């Protein structure tokens, strides 16, 4: 399984529990491209020093405001530039960095690892491998207790099939290690995670299946959907579960979009495999037939699938097969989304993949849940208690109880509103929900007992599991 990994962090945000996942990288490697000679070294040292001053956990840290690419984030052009997020309702697991790739990835999230395909958000240009862009970090990192261990090797399998493993002590150092080339080394990675008691968090799309799927660039959503078939998810999950079965590792499958993986998960659990899974608001509330050609605001990987698939996901959620419903928040600037209304081509193959769901996740899920007879208590369990338990924060987050953080919302379950992109609190207000009428509106949000001002400075802080 070709994977890339992001460290999993838990800084508090406007929702409870607040968890963000970010790309791994070395924020202190800025000097590496500063140029040759003493002048280049001095420039690199200054860049590293500036990075240190921005980052919590490093001398001079300035708190936990995430940042993206320096100039681009300040100008609001970086696809992961910080969002001025509004209330996300009863919590929801906050995914995706709103600050940038490679920044603050050295924080101590000691018991989690995340494996992702190297081209998770990247364009797939007509199936031509030579034109496909690789992710910034093409391996993965295991974060857990104990000393640093590095596993690597050239291996003999075909290029592009490898994983990279790194186990780091506290604090994380951002070092890179050679990428193993054989799928068997995924089992080695999971065996090490089992030893550490760590959680492997996996984006499940098998690149071998994706490489054989038809790659047709253009504006037709059905062509994009055919390029990311159900089989890519089920093949990746099947391979992961087999490795987990042999090693005893605990694994978690991210953003399940395909109901085809559900029987695999059921059988694995029956066999004693420690596996959990999640799904997302856009997979529960949107369907492929609702996606207009060229409207790349709907593009995400894995993709939004058909209506029958959506109903099977809802049934699995009702049956308790998903540990959580998470935002999978992945914002992007309009130019990266290639939206026609912003002068873009509307090419699904080339556009940025990801849906900005942080602000609208709760009302979107509540709208569909209510139609199906589910209660607000169930939604709170899916979007707040479940994520808190999953990441080991149930003692502080996810419930209204003495001793827990007072992360609350005043929610009007009967209020209806029409989504207007320009009124969102996102810095880049790109959303597939534009023009849709949703039910349920957040009136006020409290973070640790203090009302949140969406126009004020962020007050979140890093959470470390005890």
Radius of gyration: 21 Å
| Order of helix and strand elements from N to C terminus | EEHHEEEEHEHHHEHEHHEHHHEEE
Largest sheet: 5 strands, parallel
Give the N-terminus to C-terminus distance in angstroms.
32 Å
CATH topology: TIM Barrel
**Total number of β-strand segments?**
13
Mean pLDDT: 72
The side-by-side strand order for the widest beta sheet comes to 3-7-8-9-10
Number of domains: 1
What structural class do helix, strand and pairing data support? alpha/beta
Instruction: Work out the helicity level.
Output: 25-40%
The H-level CATH homologous superfamily, spelled out, is Metal-dependent hydrolases
Looking at the overall shape, the CATH architecture is Alpha-Beta Barrel
Shape: globular
Overview of the structural elements:
- Residues 144-159 have a biased composition (Gly residues).
- Residues 247-452 form the Amidohydrolase-related domain.
- InterPro entries: Amidohydro-rel, DHOase/Allantoinase_Hydrolase, Metal-dep_hydrolase_composite, Metal_Hydrolase.
- Pfam families: Amidohydro_1.
- This is Allantoinase.
- With 466 residues, the chain is of the alpha/beta class.
- It has one domain: TIM Barrel (Alpha-Beta Barrel).
- Helix content is 26%, strand content 12%.
- It has a 5-stranded parallel beta sheet. The chain has a 3-stranded mixed beta sheet with strand order 4-6-5, with helices on one face. Strands 11-12-13 form a 3-stranded antiparallel beta sheet, with helices on one face.
- Helix 7 (262-270) links the parallel strand 8 (250-253) and strand 9 (275-279).
- Helix 3 packs across helix 6 (230-247).
């Amino acid at each position: 399984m070709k994977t890339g990994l992001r460290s999993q962090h838990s800084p508090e945000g406007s929702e409870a529990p607040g968890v963000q996942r970010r790309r791994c990288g070395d924020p202190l490697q800025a000097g590496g491209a500063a140029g040759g000679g003493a002048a280049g070294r001095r420039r690199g040292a200054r860049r590293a020093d500036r990075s240190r001053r921005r980052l919590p956990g490093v001398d001079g840290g300035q708190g936990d405001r995430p940042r993206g690419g320096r100039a681009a984030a300040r100008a609001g052009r970086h696809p992961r530039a910080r969002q001025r997020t509004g209330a996300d309702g009863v919590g929801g697991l906050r995914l995706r960095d709103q600050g940038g790739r490679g920044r603050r990835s050295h924080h101590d999230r000691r018991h989690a690892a995340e494996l992702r395909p190297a081209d998770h958000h990247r364009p797939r240009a007509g199936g031509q491998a030579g034109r496909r862009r690789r992710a910034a970090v093409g391996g993965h990192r295991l974060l857990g207790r104990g000393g640093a261990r590095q596993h690597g090797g050239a291996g003999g399998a075909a290029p592009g099939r490898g994983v990279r493993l790194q186990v780091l002590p506290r604090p994380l150092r951002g070092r890179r290690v050679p990428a193993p080339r054989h799928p068997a080394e995924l089992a080695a990675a999971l065996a090490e995670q089992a030893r550490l008691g760590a959680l492997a968090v996996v984006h499940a799309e098998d690149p071998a299946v994706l490489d054989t799927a038809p790659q047709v660039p253009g504006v037709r959503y059905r062509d994009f959907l055919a390029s990311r078939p159900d089989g890519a998810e089920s093949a990746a999950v099947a391979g992961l579960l087999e490795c987990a079965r042999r090693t005893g590792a605990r694994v978690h499958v991210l953003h399940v979009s395909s109901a085809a993986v559900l029987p695999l998960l059921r059988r694995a659990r029956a066999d004693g495999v420690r596996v959990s899974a999640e799904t997302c608001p856009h997979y529960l509330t949107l369907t492929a037939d609702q996606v207009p050609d060229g409207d790349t605001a709907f593009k995400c990987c894995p993709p939004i699938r058909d209506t029958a698939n959506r109903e099977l996901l809802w049934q699995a959620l009702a049956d308790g097969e998903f540990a959580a419903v998470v935002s999978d928040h992945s914002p992007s600037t309009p130019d990266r989304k290639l939206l026609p209304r912003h002068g873009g081509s509307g090419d699904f193959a080339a556009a940025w993949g990801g849906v900005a769901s942080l602000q609208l996740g709760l009302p979107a899920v509540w709208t569909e849940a209510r139609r199906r007879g589910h209660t607000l208590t169930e939604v709170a369990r899916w979007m707040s208690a479940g994520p808190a338990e999953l990441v080991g924060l149930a003692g502080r987050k996810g419930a209204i109880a003495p001793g827990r953080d007072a992360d609350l919302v005043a929610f009007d379950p009967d209020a209806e509103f029409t989504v207007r992109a320009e009124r969102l609190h996102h810095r880049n207000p790109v959303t597939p929900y534009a023009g849709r009428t949703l039910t349920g509106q957040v009136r006020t949000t409290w973070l640790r007992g203090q009302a949140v001002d969406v126009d004020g400075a962020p007050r979140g802080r890093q959470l470390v599991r005890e």
